[in-house]
Amino acid sequence: MSDRTQLPSNEETSPSHAQLFIAVPGHWMFAALNPITTTWLTAQGRQNEARYGLVKYDGPPAHSKFFEVASIPISELGDVEARVRSVLPEENPQGEAAFNRQYVRDILKNLVDGGILGEDRARDALLAVETFAKLS
To answer: Where would you tag: which of 10, 17, 129, 131 has the fewest CB atoms within 10 A of its CB?
Structure first.
């Protein structure tokens, strides 16, 4: 588990709510922060010789740009992790960066399908990240 405790914003967080983010350290990643234990769950799609989701209990790189998706009850983190681990997008002929972005989109869709996220929140977060990516 990560010992990284610095939150990605100056906003106060509720100790009973976890924060869900899209983090952009280069490639997109999904990130969930448990503020009680200050631990992270991160997930990135990988497509090289094989395709898979790299799920870790480590914080995003320090230089990451964070886009908050939602604040959820900590009690839902187990369901979030199960849904993250169940996602594996199809191979993307446009390469690893496109595969990675689709992986994050698929995670958010799975969280919406499970009732953890509202569709509007997921769509707004994706729009913000896509706009940022185009301007970078």
So the answer is: 10
